[in-house]
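User: Reviewer 2 asked us to show a designed sequence for the structure in our supplementary figure. I'm pasting the structure tokens here. Could you produce the per-position amino acids so we can include them in the response letter?
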């Protein structure tokens, strides 16, 4: 992924929160030539990923850093405890403090389609009502409200991000892990739909959002959603694993449409590309 170096892509300083996360690392690896990045990572990180990286918010705020843009990627995503003690601190308070510290910077927030809650109709559009069904989704909606107070801002509601280095515990990482054993378990008939965006495409969307001058809310989505059965078949074909069905799956399907919202695409990595890279990682 290379963004052309034009007057619009003049070198700038970007503050990236969650700089050591999967998306943060991908963004850092694909910055246009001449850009500089300041990273913020979770306190107590054993090995900072770069010299210009802070693991203490207070130290960052006391520094002389003056970012042109702030890319809010840090997020507490609960997988077991739905109400972790640091949910608000990471997902809301951090955003608030950075918005207050650099109100004139361009603020780009990686949000989530979880703010829509359970769908009543498909496809989902940006103008559909938000009905968060979890503390995590509520916290991301609160962060959206904070960022949208900035004069220059962009909010990207991402669907499911996938790629090498993703956290375990969700459907695709679980399939990748199971592939090593030679057998994949698919609950129900596999008809459930989900929309997957490769980390590399999500990083490109974030950088394109930084480069724009308008303020907007949009979706970070792939062209179409894929069924669980499709995903399992691709993993099985690549790995040689077999697929077995068990139980039922009552989870809702998700599909999205940009409508008139800003298009930060296209996605250049297919689901097949993403799954292959995860299997080879």
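Assistant: Here is a per-position design you can include in the supplement:
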């Amino acid at each position: 992924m290379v963004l052309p170096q034009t007057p619009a892509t003049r070198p700038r300083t970007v503050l990236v929160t969650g700089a050591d996360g999967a998306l943060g690392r991908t963004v850092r690896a694909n910055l246009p030539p001449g850009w500089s990045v300041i990273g913020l990572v979770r306190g107590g990180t054993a090995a900072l990923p770069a010299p210009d990286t802070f693991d203490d918010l207070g130290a960052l705020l006391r520094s002389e850093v003056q970012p042109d843009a702030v890319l809010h990627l840090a997020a507490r995503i609960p997988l077991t405890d739905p109400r972790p003690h640091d949910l608000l601190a990471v997902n809301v308070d951090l955003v608030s403090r950075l918005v207050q510290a650099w109100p004139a910077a361009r603020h780009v927030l990686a949000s989530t389609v979880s703010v829509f809650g359970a769908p009543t109709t498909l496809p989902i559009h940006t103008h559909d009502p938000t009905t968060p069904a979890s503390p995590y989704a509520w916290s991301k909606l609160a962060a959206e409200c904070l960022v949208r107070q900035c004069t220059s801002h962009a909010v990207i509601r991402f669907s499911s991000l996938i790629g090498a280095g993703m956290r375990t515990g969700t459907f695709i990482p679980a399939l990748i892990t199971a592939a090593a054993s030679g057998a994949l378990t698919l609950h129900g008939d596999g008809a459930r739909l989900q929309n997957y965006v490769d980390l590399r495409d999500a990083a490109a969307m974030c950088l394109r959002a930084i480069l724009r001058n308008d303020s907007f809310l949009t979706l970070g989505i792939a062209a179409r959603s894929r069924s669980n059965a499709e995903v399992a078949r691709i993993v099985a074909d690549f790995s040689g694993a077999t697929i077995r069905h068990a139980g039922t799956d009552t989870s809702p399907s998700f599909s999205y449409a940009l409508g008139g919202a800003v298009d930060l695409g296209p996605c250049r990595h297919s689901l097949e590309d993403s799954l292959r890279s995860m299997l080879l990682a």
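For the response letter, you might also mention the following. The mean pLDDT is 92. The CA atoms of residues 27 and 140 lie 20 Å apart.
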